[in-house]
Amino acid sequence: MYPKSIQNVIEAFKYLPGIGDKTAERMALHLLNLDKVQTDFLADSIKNLQEKTKRCKICGNFSDDDICFVCSDPTRDKKTLCVVEDPKTIIAIEKLGVYHGIYHVLNGLIATLDGMNPEDIRLDKLINRMQNEKYQELIIAVKPCLEGEMTALYINNVLKDLGINITRLASGIPMGADMEYIDAITLEKAFDNRKKIS
Length: 198
What we know:
Layout: H1 4-13, H2 21-31, H3 36-52, E1 54-55, E2 62-63, E3 80-84, H4 87-96, E4 102-105, H5 123-132, E5 137-141, H6 146-159, E6 165-168, H7 184-192
Parallel strand pairs: 3-4, 3-5, 5-6
Antiparallel strand pairs: 1-2
């Protein structure tokens, strides 16, 4: 049995995804080996995470300011809007360096069986942006699953009369995958999105 001060830290680490009893215990005991400057920095960083992280007023991305680094960048292509499920997707796309437009974060996908309906995610804000700005293309970049398909179809149906080019990221079989392990939805998408060999 550990002293309460150590046990509290172990329990706190277990709030994190993928952290069980053993890992939480190992992390808590490791903190005892750090100097005060390091533990203070860790504690302050966690506290500031809640207190100082904001959501961009335009797109919904994480930000230190009212407007995120993408929306405040004057060099971005303001005619192309990429719709993503969450801010993590923005970071993943930005790391690739292949997209130079702006984003809209939904904060979830339509999943009626789980009680997530269109009004529960930021679709109203997306519709408002599409009606009030002059976008040339809307790229739907949500994961290829049942909920992602439902969300993409809903967005397309709601916005199709605006005369904007609505596209979806291509999906299919990843490089190096064994065909026998590919799920039915991915395989179907791979057939639907097949291309001519040039």
